[in-house]
Specification:
Order of helices and strands: HEEHHHHHHHHHHHHH
Number of strands: 2
Structural class: mainly alpha
Number of helices: 14
CATH architecture of the largest domain: Alpha Horseshoe
Length: 252
């Protein structure tokens, strides 16, 4: 597989997500929501203190911090790493073969660009496998291509809830957040993926991290992410172009 193709992210079921352009960021939470969030964080912190070895509690706290990612980015990523180190596991599910035909037909439709048909087939397959993450992540991809990002994020989140230890699910939702211009959430989830899968091949996600930093106007961080790419990927024209653009913006 050539390096240009590797500059793309594959989901757990081999559906390819493209690199997406960056743009402007969205606003934060209102004061009333923030007060409520602080209260919930405090309560869950107490539970974690009582059961510090409970991986699921650390994972839930990580997700809670994620609700105000601009304020709690570091805490969210730290609690996620703690959950992984404590043995975070996915839910045990058994694949029902009655969903195979619809699942396969959905993938074919998705790769052909027939997103509505793909969604219908994934929904049908999910009736036989409602607790299997793959149907949810595939629906997330289909909705992303339709630019229905709210639904894409919803299904991507469901997939993660069902299998929180599968690295590629975080990369997938990280790409979706990037397309929706939720740049900090994109960076958080891409880093979660790379923490779970620290292979050199998976470092391709640093390109997407750089795109998100560029969207935030953090050009030094974008260049830093590009510098961490494997040497062969740093030679790719799309990487060189993004670096040149970020350097130019940084010097203006």
């Amino acid at each position: 597989m050539n390096t240009t193709v590797r500059m793309m992210l594959a989901t757990a079921t081999a559906v390819i997500l493209p690199l997406l352009p960056s743009g402007s960021t969205q606003g934060g939470l209102g004061a009333q929501q923030e007060i409520s969030l602080e209260s919930r964080i405090s309560q869950l912190q107490q539970e974690v203190a009582q059961k510090p070895r409970d991986a699921n509690l650390h994972f839930e706290l990580s997700k809670l911090y994620e609700e105000d990612v601009e304020k709690y980015y570091d805490e969210s990523l730290s609690e996620f790493k703690e959950a992984v180190d404590r043995g975070l596991k996915g839910k045990t599910t058994v694949w029902n073969n009655l969903g195979d035909v619809n699942a396969h037909t959905g993938l074919v439709a998705l790769q052909a660009g027939n997103y509505d048909k793909a969604i219908r087939n994934f929904e049908a397959a999910a009736k036989f496998n409602p607790n299997h993450y793959s149907m949810h992540t595939n629906m997330a991809v289909a909705y992303m291509y339709k630019k229905e990002f709210d639904k894409a994020i919803e299904y991507g989140g469901k997939a993660i809830d069902l299998n929180p230890s599968r690295a590629s699910l975080y990369g997938s939702i990280g790409i979706i957040y990037l397309g929706n211009k939720d740049f900090r959430l994109s960076i958080l989830n891409l880093n979660r993926d790379m923490y779970l899968n620290d292979s050199s091949e998976n470092k391709v996600l640093l390109f997407n991290v750089a795109q998100a930093y560029k969207g935030l106007g953090e050009y030094s961080n974008a260049i830093g992410a590009l510098n961490q790419l494997p040497r062969n990927l740093r030679k790719e024209s799309i990487v060189k172009d993004l670096r040149k653009e970020c350097v130019g913006l940084l010097n203006n």
